[in-house]
Amino acid sequence: MTKHDQFRFYQLATILVAVYIGFIVLVNLVIAQQQDAMLKERGADYALIIKQPQFDRQKWLRQNGLQVLTPKSPNKTKLQKAATDIVNRNHSAANFSTRQTVNKQPYLFYAHQADRPNFVLVVPRQQFWHTWPKIALSVTIVYLIGSWIFLYRFWRQRRHFFDHLKILVANIHHIRHEEVPEPIIFQKDASLYILAQEINKLNGDMRHMRQKIAMQQGSFDRLIDHLPVGVMVINENREVVLHNEAMDRLLETTIVTEKHPYIDDIKTYELTRMIEHTFRYRKSHHQEIQLIQNQERFVDANVVQLNTVKSKFQALVILYDLTDVRRVEQMQLDFVSNVSHELKTPVTAITGFAETLLAGAAEDPATQKQFLQIIYDESTRLTALIQDILALSHLDRKDQSQEQLVNVCELVQANLELMQQKAQQKQLHVSVDIPTDLAIRIQKMKFNQILKNLIANAITYNKQNGSLVIAVQLEKDQIVIRVVDTGLGIPSDLQERIFERFYRVDQARATHKSGTGLGLAIASEITASLEGQLTVESQLGVGSEFILKLPNA
């Protein structure tokens, strides 16, 4: 038991002893009152008896256990002296009773002074233990046994209560530390039954809450990991406590999950300075910076303060990758510059030859025809360039055209017929290997644009008396179209760049009057929009093979 329970045990024992003493005192008091009333009655009776000489007074006194003292009695004993003193002190009172101890023995005195003769009746004062010792002993034994049983049950109950309470406290400790609590069974009338029930409910609620928190934490972690932006949380000790995979990719490092200084991962001074200023001035910072690492990256960096309490301050670092945006912006600038340059060449030629004709060259028929042919060629090239630019602008819009079943052989033949004149000018040998019944479900306009640009490129850059082969075959769930020419060929280190807008392999191609530098770029971007793939295999001086792969639903 605890000290408090021990104190209560001793307190109860003291109370039981006090109750026993109080009981004895109360019984003695009741006995004294009864004896006092009885003595008064005997006194009245004796007052009548002494008036009858024939009555045996001594026998009556012995039967009632009384002694008679009169003022005339000689003061031989202490009891007689005590009776005389009582009468002398209260000589004016008629009849009265009093208690007094003589020779350590309590006596009860009744003085009769109302009429003559005067006398004093004396009787030993009765007490519980003296009068009824056997009954007193029995009552005391029963009381002690009852008290002992009561105290024993109290001690046992408190011990069980304390043992169960320790188990319940231990169960609360287990619940706090996510451990399995010890099972305990209580009766419904037990004092700790309600507390045990509440602890069991608490355990169930905490288990459910932890499961819910674990699910939410898992969802949060998955959300953080799938965010396209880099996220990092740094605590007040400058340690990384949370990060996602995007931050790993942006910083080009492997960030460990254990707490560690953030400077182990962040090597860019600008970003480190933003974090330190956030901790120092308790203020969020936003800036576009360039990460210094293997691959050049531009990021929009935000360092946000999460709270203002110094001991709990944390900084949230968010990095949004702007590299592709800046690359697109640069491509747009390059595109505008290239378009301006490509448009400037034919416009300048048309303007210059037109001015020459107006200045007098029109008088010479041969010169006039030559200049007009140049103006026509340049205007045709300008028209083709504008059409290709418009085609590129259409690619940036969402195409809402529906897919339809297209016969591949018929579409290829239609494009060859449109370019038949150019092919005949170069005396090309054209070979088509396509099943006549092969059809594909696709957006016809886009598919036709790809074929047109690939065939036109193969004819334009082919050599005189060369060959052009167009073959189509099915491979699993896709259709493969091969366009093979016997042109100049493309160096292996430049084959990936020929699909860029306005890119030319060499000056000979760049000055070719029939090309705009956009055909392959258009074909590549349309192929990507159709979830296909366009590649090239080429060899200098031998020719090129363009391979178009499109999904065949």
UniProtKB/TrEMBL annotation:
Keywords: Kinase, Membrane, Phosphoprotein, Transferase, Transmembrane, Transmembrane helix, Two-component regulatory system. Signal peptide: none annotated. It is an enzyme of class 2 (transferase). CDD domains: HATPase (cd00075), HisKA (cd00082). The chain crosses the membrane at residues 12-32, 135-155. Pfam families: HATPase_c, HisKA. Residues 338-553 form the Histidine kinase domain. Its main location: membrane. It catalyses: ATP + protein L-histidine = ADP + protein N-phospho-L-histidine. GO terms for molecular function: kinase activity. It is found in: Membrane. Its EC number is 2.7.13.3. SUPFAM superfamilies: ATPase domain of HSP90 chaperone/DNA topoisomerase II/histidine kinase, Homodimeric domain of signal transducing histidine kinase. Gene3D superfamilies: 1.10.287.130, Histidine kinase-like ATPase, C-terminal domain, PAS domain. This is histidine kinase. It comes from Latilactobacillus curvatus.
